[in-house]
Amino acid sequence: MAAVGDEVSVEVARRLSLNAQGFADGRPKRGDVRAMRRAIAQAGVLQLDSVNVLCRSHYLPVFARVGNYSRAALDKLAWGDDRELFEYFWGHKAALIPLTAYPLMRWRMRAAERQVWDEELSPEVTAPWSVVAGMRRLTAERPGYVDQVLELITEKGPLTAGEASPDGVRRKRADPHPDPSTGRMWNWQDAKIAIEYLFCTGQVTIAGRRHFERIYDLTERVLPADVLSAPELTADEARRELVRIAARGLGIATAKELCGSGQGHFPLPTATAREVIGELTETGELIPVRVEGISRQSYRWHEAKDRPVDAQALLSPFDPLIWNRDRTHHLFDFFYRISIYTPAPQRIHGYYVLPFLLGDLLVARVDLKADRRTSTLVVPTLTLEPDAPDCTAPLAAELHLMATWLGLGHIEVTATSPLGRSVARAVAS
Which helix (H) or strand (E) covers residue 369, if one does? Predict the structure, then answer.
């Protein structure tokens, strides 16, 4: 059994996490590309999500750390000719990741390929089940189909999934689902299944986005040659480096938060995770500690800093600081669940709710919507946390900053809570 280590208060653990994510540094005076790069490095990864009620989720973590910056400049970093990011799966979530991490993903691409073809193999990472089940069906029903899709992309790419069907045959929505176990959400066309398999295995990548729809092309035509020719890492080397990235970005975390299935920054099987964490503990990179109120063993990154935090930020539901809901509850005493899939009558705090970070606490829940037709940032619901200090002035300032950043000319606070009424007066003055 590893040593439990010294006890760390929850306040210290919270500051370590906020420092690791860049919230102790203060926003830069200019939201230029240099500041954006720093923010992306601090966040570690920008999770992608299709919900656009406010703006695409991957823009928000950079805004939280930088303030007013150009979203077009981030698009260039992600999908431009001189891109510095690439799309892949971070854990099980689609994300933008710095190109420096591309070599770390190659073993995952090979593992995904093995999982699709070997039903007996229990790989260390799993491709999306929609790809696994879909590919097994395609292999039986339409042998050679994936090769045809790859040939079409090679000849005519870049293409969307809808453009990548070699024969144009499409299943009707009324047709019985070929594999009910994948669920209605994954009722993909065959070309989509094939192209997502090619993406998971690294044969194609995302060349760009058109109205947020993925555009695929051969990886060698999209990513820089020096990235593709970088030395191959072994699976063990890649795993260690990925856990280092997670530990550096979290500051302090349990093994499950570092690399646990479903919650970790980068999921690994329990035995593998235990082995990697043990190795990094032996080298002194991870320091075993106990965090007040958390029963599981925690680990502090050896370079994690405990500095005062005087932050002010609206946080995306998918911000790396809070995307692990259990960890958010432990560190911030903030029970948070996204409400976009909750039926309207059951929503308590609104539809697209952003926690408001003030100092080192989450003090309010802010439901936001961008009404682009009227150029208005709408605040339908606003809830102050119990025992939280009044945050009217800083929240009003943050709403003004967000409206400016999004190019919206007005702010409309329709929330009727006490905080909502005071913020409405503040933004109107």
Answer: strand 361-371
Q: Which residues of 293-307 are buried (b: 16+ CB within 10 A; e: fewer)?
A: ebeebbbbbeebebe
Rounded to the nearest angstrom, the gap between the alpha carbon of residue 378 and the centroid of all alpha carbons in its chain is 25
How many C-beta atoms surround the C-beta of residue 166 within 10 A? 17
Q: How confident is the model at residue 185 (pLDDT cuts 50, 70, 90)?
A: very low
Q: What's the whole-number mean pLDDT along residues 354-374?
A: 98
Q: Give just the sign of the alpha carbon dihedral 311, 381, 43, 5.
A: positive
Identify the bridge partners of residue 254 per DSSP, sorted by sequence position: 298
CA 235 vs. chain centroid, Å, equals 23
Tokens (6 digits) for 157: 């790419």
β-strands 376-384, 93-98: how paired?
unpaired
- Find the helix packing angle between 270-282 and 235-250, rounded to 10°: 70
- Within 10 angstroms of residue 415's Cβ, the number of other Cβ atoms is 20
Whether the full predicted model's pTM is greater than 0.90, yes or no, is: yes
Tokens standing for residue 427: 């933004």
Q: Contacts by 266-270 with C-beta closer than 8 Å and gap 24+?
A: 266/90, 266/91, 266/242, 267/91, 267/92, 267/125, 268/124, 268/125, 268/239, 268/243, 269/124
Angstrom distance (rounded) from CA 44 to CA 251: 12
Closest by Cα among 113, 116, 89 to 97: 89
* CA–CA gap between residue 216 and residue 47 (Å, rounded): 19
Cβ 44 vs Cβ 320: under 8 Å: yes
Q: At what angle do helices 325-332 and 10-20 cross, to 10 degrees?
A: 130
Q: Which residues contact 345 (CB under 8 A, 6 or more apart)?
A: none
The answer to whether 356 touches 364, Cβ cutoff 8 Å, is: yes
Predicted pLDDT of residue 90: 81
State what percent of residues in the chain have pLDDT above 70.
92
72 CB-near residues (< 8 Å, 6+ apart): none
Neighbours of 340 (CB within 10 A): 13
> Is 1's pLDDT higher than 60?
no
CA gyration radius, the chain: 23
Per-residue pLDDT, 405: 98
Q: Phi-psi region for residue 308, left (φ > 0), alpha (ψ -120 to 50) or beta?
A: beta
